[in-house]
Design goal:
homotetramer, 146 residues, alpha+beta, Thiol Ester Dehydrase, Chain A, 3 helices, 22% helix, 42% strand, elongated, HotDog_dom_sf (chains A, B, C, D)
Chain lengths: 146, 146, 146, 146
Amino acid sequence: MIVSDADYELKVRSSFDKQNLMKTLGAQLVAVGPGTCEIELPFSSSLGQQHGFLHAGATTSIADSAAGYAAYTLTPKGSSVLTTELKINLLSPAQGERFFARAEVLKAGKTLTVVTSKVFAVQKGQEKLCAFLTASIMTVPHAETI
Amino acid sequence: MIVSDADYELKVRSSFDKQNLMKTLGAQLVAVGPGTCEIELPFSSSLGQQHGFLHAGATTSIADSAAGYAAYTLTPKGSSVLTTELKINLLSPAQGERFFARAEVLKAGKTLTVVTSKVFAVQKGQEKLCAFLTASIMTVPHAETI
Amino acid sequence: MIVSDADYELKVRSSFDKQNLMKTLGAQLVAVGPGTCEIELPFSSSLGQQHGFLHAGATTSIADSAAGYAAYTLTPKGSSVLTTELKINLLSPAQGERFFARAEVLKAGKTLTVVTSKVFAVQKGQEKLCAFLTASIMTVPHAETI
Amino acid sequence: MIVSDADYELKVRSSFDKQNLMKTLGAQLVAVGPGTCEIELPFSSSLGQQHGFLHAGATTSIADSAAGYAAYTLTPKGSSVLTTELKINLLSPAQGERFFARAEVLKAGKTLTVVTSKVFAVQKGQEKLCAFLTASIMTVPHAETI
């Protein structure tokens, strides 16, 4: 993974802080690396679906943000990123005290970067893979239009 | 669309009320019909991404809930539903005062029901399609395991 | 749908004729319109999967080509198109004497155009929806690199 | 990966031999293991798209068959498998003398098994990742209906 912007962690952290949805959900940025990003989400009953598990929308939110920021670590200074599409398979009920979305760039392209994110549920200290996301992230030079 | 449970609206509304994430986001159930469901989400800056638009995770949350409930209107009494996978294309920046997710069952199967949801942004009274989701919803007879 | 290249049908037909896989499968271009395309595939046992139905790969091939050409009708003269990702739900067994993939542009963008294709199986004169595809098609000005 | 049918390789090879599309494309089963499968496709101009590269439909065909058979290695004796949905990201132009689809089960479930496939292009002895697929494969006890 080739990093062109040495300040990639700073720009990712600064952008993450502007994602109000992450605050609303209670998600935190754990780690950022070249082409990788990890986000943590403590479970709260306010994030549940009808059976009390984490809602697929919350799972997708952290998996998508992690994917976008994994891509963002590799984009040139001054550009921004946009998710153009994402796909998530919900592999097992999202039950746990906390969740981790770990994203990794699969292919960095000039216009589109493809990223995968794995979401793990932690229950009584045991990690279990509960979701798998693939996303296409577009690099936008300056403006934010697709 | 064949409805086997005449109380489908009641069961959908009762289940929606248990989806705490919908409350946390501020989403409301607008309409339920045989194989259809509509959810409304007023914009709030607490749901934003880094540019202030609606975060893809919030867009996906209402599109997924609408899809799940569209499927749920058609399932037999006593069963529950689970999203096994979803895919969303983010077609234009999610900018607006409010958003509507409108879901429609494409194919109702015994085990899997495939549903599409369109998400519209309303800006100054103008509706604009901003996202398109496809989801596979599994009907689970009693338990909630995949 | 705004057509910028009045010769869109000619360019689509000429490009389709170069898609050797379509010949190998026995597929034909039926109709082209602004933002739409229809491809027909007569069933042949040479296209089967293990149960004798049409292989998902053949279903996807015509759904993808139809989607790409629906997008191509709207792109400027001199540009080419590339599928960057596609998603297909196989809704019922692909059983029939012939199949039709009908694609329609959902959102035409400068860089990415999102298209849906429905695949219908025709059995004893009855059409049945058997697959639903969504694809992101990239417009490439001159070269063919992503 | 837990194998319940010790004859898994035999049943996979026997089923692959019935997939006529694989013969039509010229694809061969290379390797089968518990939860894994590899298929090889030599390039032929008869499989091309309009620029002469491998058509996305051919790429998807081998990636899907590999995914289905990776899942099939893990299903109980007497059952069959069906792809219910698949998603593929086309990461770079499919240019090469031969292609390999390598599938690996991500999560084996009772009803649905989620599998990923990577497709590599081999050009002058160099392997390059050109596509990434995720598929949901349904285990069907006896019949073949979804």
